[in-house]
Fold each of these.
Amino acid sequence: DLVLAEELVRRAGLAVDNARLFRKAQEALKSRDEFLSMASHDLRSPLTSLRLQLHAVRRDLQPGDERKRASEKLVSRVESMERQTDRMLRMMDALLDISQMTAGRLELKRQKVDLVELVRGAVGTLDEELRQNGVQMRVHAEGRVEGEWDRLRLEQVIDNLLSNAVKYGKGQPVDLTVSVDGTTARLVVCDRGVGIAPEDQERLFERFERVRLDRNVGGYGVGLWIVRRVVEAHGGRVSVESRLGEGSSFTVLLPMRGQAPAQPGCAQETG
Ligand code: ADP
């Protein structure tokens, strides 16, 4: 009976859709749990160190015979405590930033920014790390590429893309290209590292998504999500091209002029 057959097919389709939804929900929960366990692990280790240092300070404060040596030790302990608390503060700031961005608040402070200068600056900041890892990072750009952008947010975008290129770049050279295409600025970050399988490429831009849950490579899977949020808030786009085992190339396109918000008030006289 045709009607019955059609009904069965429809129901089977629904069941498949439900199973797919269920699987997606399960995956989302799993990556959230993984994120929470890694984040709490990373918050715990500076805290633990801080607690040990405090214990030692209390011990050193008890008057001993060698006061001078004790006070030198004390200074270095306090310095270490400061470093640990700074680290924690940075992590907390990052978490707060993420939750604010999730809540939909992303206000841009636009000003005139030179993308080439930002990229060179970011490479300069990474200098020590690059040297330690023997990674070559080459910037290909001519002159200035200026736009009305949020400097700090764009620095975040560049930092995330560069640090991924180093993390997943297998120590191979990384090429950064800044160019202009009409009224759009283009930044391409190209590595020759582990690459990303086609089926994983789109979901990397989701929050908490990581392809390799490798504890030796630090991260929470939020970097690319931030990249996309910031780039899209600027009216731009980010995309990836990659081949597994050969490398990845991330392209950021940014309109050089922010869309002017509609001006309230009277019509302008023209001509
Ligand atoms: P993470 O903190 O895990 O690096 P990101 O959001 O920056 O988070 O990236 C998400 C995932 O995308 C990474 O875990 C990694 O699997 C993959 N990925 C990002 N950049 C690259 C790259 N340049 N090469 C290969 N894989 C990458």
Amino acid sequence: MNTESVAVTPEEHFQDKVNREVKIEPRDWMPEKYRQTLIRQISQHAHSEIVGMLPEGNWITRAPSLRRKATLIAKVQDEAGHGLYLYSAAETLGISRAEMIDQLHSGKAKYSSIFNYPTLNWADIGAIGWLVDGAAIMNQVPLCRTSYGPYARAMVRICKEESFHQRQGFEILLTLSKGTEAQRRMCQDAINRWWWPSIMMFGPSDDASPHTAQSMKWKIKRISNDELRQKFVDVIAEQVKILGMTLPDEALAWNEARGHYDFGTINWEEFWNVISGNGPCNRERIAARIAAHEEGAWVREAASAFAEKQRQRSGGKDEKAVA
Ligand code: FAQ
């Protein structure tokens, strides 16, 4: 019998756990770069949910019926909830909520490119639900199996809610597509404007993505940016037929040999421009977030003062109950 012990480094032990599909939990040893990558990705994901409330929030007061208004309010509230689960998941990695918010406001942390485009009319709310939430789900379902436990668990609930979001968007467009000529034109116009930005959401192509290879090795990401984008194109190219509309891409065509739809070239210059702060609404979005944060300061102060008062009343014994 070979009794020789083989020295295993912490990195090897960690990678072995990842390979065996054992979830990494907050108190487990992890490489510093793994921790930093997760903080980056989870916090940017949280920021996307919170900034993503803005383009839709813009239409709550103008929704065309009580039913549409109630549904849109519920969707936007879900997004606030997703942001909160995700900030909490990121906090387990040792960063505070305040630091993450500062990084968003200072421009150090990114949020999804898609939320820098304007919502010009009601059909845009349908297009966001169908295309933006659709792309989000395609990217997020594999994240339910991501290697970091708190992130994976947060994603399960988020994905359930996202699928309702996508259905509400598709239903808005389906209604418009059966409406008057003007409503059909609105529907097509919204699809035309949201299509390319939606497929940019998956990130740069694999050969231009600096983080994909390592994130796949650590099983943070399970499927690459280009593979997810292709899956999304294949689904949407079929669904658009139900609407009787088209996607604004002349190169879109079924490729029998590949078993996938071919599609045209993405304008990567636009993508990099938007994520470096120069999209149509970047400044407006950050200004709105900073104003909301400043206007909400008194709420945070009041909540802290109340918690402190409760703590003192209980003689500091029952901190959990008042937290
Ligand atoms: N926008 O090497 P990669 C939603 C950055 S939630 C902005 O490929 P990675 C729900 C990337 O951060 C939507 N930046 O990076 C909703 C990196 O820059 P950095 C958000 C982007 O991380 C619906 C650089 O480019 N979802 O929509 C984008 O491996 C409706 C190089 O890229 C998530 O965050 C982009 N689109 O892959 C809410 C999902 N793409 O950080 C309201 C979780 C790339 O080095 C209404 N995140 N960049 O400065 C992920 O899956 C990944 O982080 C990717 C990027 C796939 C987004």
Amino acid sequence: YSSMKISSRPELTEFEGISMVHYFTDNWKNVQNFKARPDDILIATYPKAGTTWVSYILDLLYFGNTAPERQTSLPIYMRVPFLESAFPVIPAGVELADNLPTTPRLIKTHLPVQLVPKSFWEQNCRVVYVARNAKDNAVSYFHFDQMNMVEPEPGDWSTFLHNYMDGKNVFGPWYDHVCGFWEKKKMYSNIHYMFFEDMVEDTGREIERLCSFLGLSTSAEEKERITQSTHFDTMKQNNMTNYSGLPVMDFKISPFMRKGKVGDWKNHFTVAQNEKFDEHYKQRMKNTTLQFRTEV
Ligand code: A3P
């Protein structure tokens, strides 16, 4: 697939009430009709919240010992299919998921809660949701849009931030996404809601919590090994987890494994942008009990 290059940026379009690009809507019928199995695990996130990190942790928890050759031969995006994706460079997410040989299947989505295929809820699948504070999430998304040819041009930082506050970026508003899954938890108990900041603070503790949600009795040694293997520097070096094989990204502009920090927003937000953002944030988040940390 790697000989195929994307020549132009997609446009941002309106789809089912959110901003989208065609790469995530081209296969919509198959996405909507996706047949989940009861033991599927859905990894749901707003883009840039730590999806790859948690995906790799889950992959190692389930298959680190039973299928070690998968870890060294298949990139993470092939092991954990991106459900709604229909990129020209790899098979569509639904197709990859349908052909996964493993049980459970680990499946990634960025869809907001209202667009998640209903089969996942009907089958009472386990859902692991990862959320990241709005400011660091914005900064990470900005760099990602710059280097990823399947994303619309982000413009400069101030343009991007303005659009982000407006929800005019792929997968819609951050605010609705994180709150949507937070609310869903009240009606649907099979969601483990976790935070990027907690993972940075204490990865081992978060792996522990994941294990108890998933009912896994992984040994302490194994958990320690997974903590080491999923460290930022290790994942950045690992060609199976750093996205280096995907030709739609230009690492000369920005690497996929960029910084992996909490608080990098301080290097991007001006004082004025920060004040405006905080004001707007208060409005957008006034009806939720959901709380984030912007530093650890
Ligand atoms: P930064 O751009 O802030 O560095 P996603 O996988 O959802 O696209 O999220 C990508 C973000 O998670 C990037 O953030 C990336 O560096 C960070 N990340 C990925 N693996 C990580 C790890 N093991 N530890 C810390 N951060 C990680």
